């Protein structure tokens, strides 16, 4: 959880302090150009995330979940802390924005490796019949990271002047990532690797190239989770990052009114995600995921209609709806996707199928929606965007097989069917020839 908290804490802090960072690293007479340059650097991390998923997914299946998670949290906390120590443009010239890009790239690399390792780790340690509940805390903790980031930016902007914020106070939120990262590192050092990984290692079933093995044998499952991730990432980035920009840009709602309501929405999905995760342990992953997708299709439009009211109460109710809908989908999500793959290629498979959609639809969603809303004049465009993603993910969910309620041995037998089928098609002819030769003899 702390790995996800550090990741999304930095995400929120950078996004909310973007106007300040624009003056620190890209000062110019044109404030819009400075802001666009800052947001461009923000997007760099998303384009690096797939590389992190590939690299750390490979390492997670080769050297273990624990060792990979240690490297990931060190990289994330170190890169975020380093951002708080960077020289400004006035101090270092072009070196300052270049170092900022390097730090954001390292953060993206780390973020790309966090999910596959942590999801595999928790799913493989979870008690039988409770995998949905335990894994739901991973994505649920995203709400804590976003909340901490929002509160930090809100408090900082309230207690220090704009001059102090641009001079030195902007560094403080990034430096706060260090103690969070150290606590996470301490906890991960005290954990053993998962029984599933140790069993695969002892049995000698770990491939030399997990990425190649994953794509060769499990490409259908990888495409399945990519389709499921579509709603997950679009709902998160539209509901809890873009809405603030949407309210300010198109409805002229100040941050002082939208941020407290947004924090309430973030805490809502943190609290409710384990509830829906536990529900999926009882009734299955598919019913809960499909119900949440239908909920998005039905409920996202009324939520955005409430935003048009612009009052705090209406915005608060809208965020509570968004938080509940997201919790319903994210609660069973991690259990559902980890159960699609055998232990020997699980981290690598998740690294591929999860991070590529996040790269495209997470990093580019704010830009796409701002352009579409402005170009078409359709003020409810974000709602239509989420509904489209929900329809696609619903269709994918309805086609997937149910895996809830299976223990580790049964699970690997189910998800290993593709492997068995592949081997059967390759070996069947040789076995038939040997059988005929035996009959002749």
UniProtKB/TrEMBL annotation:
Pfam families, from UniProt?
Answer: MFS_1
For this protein, the parts annotated as crossing the membrane are: 7-26, 32-56, 133-156, 168-187, 217-238, 258-276, 288-306, 312-331, 352-372, 378-400
Does the keyword Transport feature in the UniProt annotation? yes
Q: What is its main location?
A: membrane
Q: Which PROSITE patterns match?
A: MFS (PS50850), SUGAR_TRANSPORT_2 (PS00217)
What UniProt keywords are attached to this protein's entry? Cell membrane, Membrane, Symport, Transmembrane, Transmembrane helix, Transport
InterPro entries registered for this protein in UniProt: H+-coupled_symporters, MFS, MFS_dom, MFS_trans_sf, Sugar_transporter_CS
Q: What is this protein called?
A: MFS transporter
